[in-house]
Design a protein that fits this description.
- This protein has a domain at about 1-85 and about 90-200.
- It is about 65% helix and about 5% strand.
- The protein is built from 15 helices and four strands.
- The chain has helices spanning about 1-15, 15-30, 50-60, 70-80, 100-120, 135-155, 160-175, 175-180, 180-195, 200-215, 220-235, 245-255, 260-275, 285-295, 310-320, and strands at about 120-125, 130, 300-305, 305-310.
- A two-stranded antiparallel sheet has the order 1-2. Strands 3-4 form a two-stranded antiparallel sheet.
- A hairpin with a 2-residue loop joins strand 3 and strand 4 (about 305-310).
- Residues about 60-65 and about 125-130 have low confidence and may be disordered.
């Protein structure tokens, strides 16, 4: 095993695509050949995949995300966790525990976000602009986590776990980071929507709504907007089993409808109108009267005899008009 690890490391250091492909084929062969391993080698059996998953996880190249090895590593990790299922008798299969792995990912993801936000992105040296090495590593890790999260929903029979709910706030928080890269932004939206499109049992819905309420108090407006956008797809795909949470989600959307950030108010108005149209929430005369009153709010006020626009009243008026 150690000789194989050394060989794979050597191949991944090579810049040629063929070497990366060979490394992935060796890893795949280790998994496929596991049926020939003896019971004495159980602790190293790739079918158990503990060591293999950790090995691939540490091998992910920090400098580039477009190469064959990185793309295959994300896919292999997702396939490995596809065996982490709960059977009808309530017992779990003897395979890697995704909850423990995702918790480790969350710790590194928190560090990557801090590095990307606090480290200067551009290094100016002799009139040459280049991205800081630490910033590049952080962004590549963030992008890898997004792709891994997406692959989980493509390969796993039971992708929704408690850890998947716990990582959701991070997928909203990195929205401001992904905004600088169109490809990453697109992949991040798809990744969150996969969770919204999944069937969510009651205990998962409760935990997820708690996370949504937390994210909507975030100081980052990109995260708040991502959370309220997610609510649309979550309710559309879980319309019937999410009925008990209608009041909480209604209150959450109303709060965002009067958010100080214009982009969030627009998304919240779309979400609320969707709730009304699909009959998730009933339109009451009290609601209509409230929105009419808000839409007629006078946002001019006088200070020292001068007419001044009140930002708070503008927000109220917009909230009533958008609905």
């Amino acid at each position: 095993m150690e000789q194989l690890y050394i060989l794979i490391r050597e191949k991944t250091k090579d810049k040629h695509e063929g070497s990366h492909r060979m490394a992935t084929e060796i890893v795949a062969g280790m998994i496929r050949g596991s049926k020939h391993w003896t019971l004495e080698m159980e602790n190293e059996d790739p079918c158990r995949m503990h060591r293999l998953i950790e090995f691939i996880y540490l091998l992910i190249n920090n400098y580039t995300t477009a190469n064959t090895f990185n793309e295959t590593a994300r896919c292999v990790l997702a396939i490995s966790f596809s065996f982490d299922t709960t059977l009808f008798n309530g017992r779990a299969t003897r395979h890697p525990d995704i909850n423990q792995f995702i918790d480790t990912i969350c710790e590194r993801l928190r560090q990557a976000i801090d590095i990307y936000e606090k480290t200067p992105r551009i290094n100016i040296s002799d009139q040459i602009l280049e991205v800081q090495d630490e910033t590049r590593k952080a962004f590549n890790f963030i992008e890898t986590v997004v792709q891994f999260h997406t692959n989980l929903f493509l390969w796993c029979e039971q992708p929704v776990k408690n850890a998947i709910i716990r990582i959701f706030p991070y997928l909203c928080e990195i929205e401001s980071i992904a905004a600088n890269d169109e490809g990453c932004k697109h992949n991040l939206t798809i990744s969150r929507n996969h969770l919204g499109m999944a069937y969510l049992h009651v205990h998962f819905l409760e935990a997820l709504i708690q996370q949504l309420e937390q994210v909507c108090t975030s100081p980052k407006w990109n995260a708040r907007r991502a959370a309220i956008q997610f609510v649309q797809s979550m309710i559309f795909w879980n319309l019937f089993n999410a009925r008990p949470y209608a009041q909480r989600l209604h209150a959450l959307v109303l709060k965002c409808l009067f958010d100080e950030q214009l982009e969030i108010r627009i998304v919240a108005s779309t979400t609320l109108s969707g709730f009304y149209q699909c009959d998730y929430i009933q339109v009451t005369p009290e609601d209509l009267n409230h929105f009419r009153a808000m839409s007629k709010t006078n946002y001019f006020t006088k200070i020292n005899g001068k007419k001044v626009t009140s930002a708070r009243d503008v927000v109220k008026r917009h909230g009533g008009q958008y609905v």
